[in-house]
């Protein structure tokens, strides 16, 4: 309010000066108008009167001039004219007097107006000076008010700062400290993350160095050094949380187990697999999951080799349970392999019903047959299922299973599937033989030969050779010795010069079949007391047995051929040599032991003769010795499982 007071005074003064100026001007204009308007009115009336008098005088003069006027009229007119002239003189005098009066009055008005103008100008100047003084005063007062306001504001600000500034500074300082702490925490986290990243990279490089050294030692065929490097990697990074390091550890354990497997250190291999599984069974990394599954699958395989079949079944069951619902195709493949091996192990445990159930689960599980490895597991499962059904004396069911396999995969072009089709046909023929359907069995063998005749793949050649061997045996049972001999000879023609071991074994089987046919013919001749012909047949049989043995490597000698050779020698009277050969047959790498013993007992039933007694005695004597020997001798029997899992 104090700052606005001078400005209000100044405005009021200006309004007063303006009012006085306007009032003086208005008064002057009104006075002037009144002084000018009155003379104009009076003079116009006098002039009007004069004009009228002049008009009348003119008319009178005109009349006077007229001679028609009478003397009386002339007198009246002259008299009137004189009066008019007198009035005119009076009017002129009045006019002159009035003019003088007006001149004096105008002079008086002029003096008054001059006085008013003077006073007006004087007071206007006074007021102007007063207004200037007020203006200067207002400016001064405004400047003073400004300084006073600035001072008061400064004072107020100082007081406010003194009262509130400290809290503001403290609040701002606290905000700054919080921001600084937050920034420091952020930088610390970034530094820690960078530190961890560098540490992880460093650890990964060190782990890769261990792994590369181990791989190099493996390539240099130095398994002990490779295992030492793998162990060093595991020991150094056992507590690492890095997923990359964990993958290196799991891979190292798997490779370590693989080295033990190659060295036939199966127990050590299982320990390595166990270590891998125990460490990472619950891990969710796809790579580690695959290694865990592969470790379980291979552990089951090594347990099968160690004849720990029940433990193998448990291992496969653990694998299937852990990854039962996986959608990862690689794991699905491992699960399928595990189920197949589980069924095979159950079959070896003489649990055909459980094996069939396992094979059925596998077939039902694999609904997507676009992957060859899954098709392969299904085909193998069906073959093994049929074999298990045959062991349960369900040949019809087995034949149905084999037919289903052939129908499902008969048009396949992949070798692994064609192999299973050939297996199915081979086993189907054998089941038909068990059903005493030799003609159907021969037709099945013929179908197998037709399908794969001329095949270049060894595995298919082997099945063709087996089909011919079985066909010849079936023909012999049908009392078609000539046809059987022709079949065996065809086999020899096809594969007699083969260099592959398995085909040489098939040729050996063919010669064994021919030799056994000659032995049977000889027994038949003995029954008819045709001794010479019988001895000739026995000697021919020995020749074929010897030819069959020539095809075999020492580690693949057949106990059946040696047993047949011993039988022929016994029938020829050389019982001592026959016993030596039979002893070798019992200990043969292939088809020795119980297989030879059971087959020999069956041979005695073909054309039984008194001459069989010496052979029967030595068979029973050597069999008892063999059983006693194997009961007292503790040794591992390694049986190869059908499938293992490698890294891919």
In round numbers, the mean pLDDT is: 82
Number of helical elements: 21
Order of helices and strands: HHHHHHHHHHHHHHHHHHHHH
CA distance, first residue to last residue: 96 Å
Estimated share of beta-strand residues? under 5%
Task: Return the structural class.
Answer: mainly alpha
So what's the overall shape?
A: rod-shaped
**In terms of per-residue confidence, which ranges show pLDDT below 50 for 5 or more consecutive residues?**
1-5, 22-41, 632-642
Radius of gyration: 71 Å
The total of beta strands comes to: 0
The CATH topology of the domain at 5-183: Helix Hairpins
Care to describe what's here?
The protein has 648 residues and is mainly α. Among the domains are: 5-183, Helix Hairpins (Orthogonal Bundle); 496-648. The protein has 21 helices and no strands. It starts with a helix and ends in a 16-residue tail after the last helix. The relative contact order is 0.04. The model is unreliable at 1-5, 22-41 and 632-642 (pLDDT under 50).
